[in-house]
Design a protein that fits this description.
- The protein has 111 residues and is α+β, with helices and mostly antiparallel strands.
- It has one domain.
- It has two helices and three strands.
- The protein has helices spanning 7-18, 74-108, and strands at 29-35, 51-60, 63-69.
- The protein has a three-stranded antiparallel sheet, with helices on one face.
- Helix 1 (7-18) runs antiparallel to helix 2.
- The relative contact order is 0.18.
């Protein structure tokens, strides 16, 4: 006899299987700043055509650090930081499923 489907278990399995694709994730927050470089003859000197500067803000040894990111790596780094957000969401969903199952098991257990 086939076991009845359990949507929570199916969701948990799907989330666990998806975690492998997140192995390249990075911590922190991605920041894009617009700024003037300070050269008087640069296009940014008028304050309108500012340069983009990319950084990630992370904790290293418990202290906040801002790490500069070269423009050619900015999109890749942004995607890897977004992976971390997806990981956190998946982990929270897995924990909700496990807690729900645990509470039901605890409730169903004879005293």
């Amino acid at each position: 006899m086939k076991k009845p489907r359990e949507p929570d278990l199916e969701l948990r399995g799907k989330l666990v299987r998806s975690l492998g694709s997140l192995r390249e994730m990075l911590p922190g927050s991605f920041v894009e700043r617009k700024r003037a470089c300070g050269r008087s003859n640069c296009r940014c000197a008028d304050g309108n055509n500012l340069h983009s500067q990319y950084q990630i803000s992370v904790l290293i040894d418990g202290k906040p650090k801002a790490l500069n990111i070269p423009a050619q790596l900015a999109e890749m780094v942004r995607e890897k930081i977004e992976m971390r957000r997806r990981f956190d969401a998946a982990a929270a969903s897995i924990c909700r499923v496990n807690l729900k199952r645990f509470l039901k098991e605890k409730e169903d257990r004879p005293a």
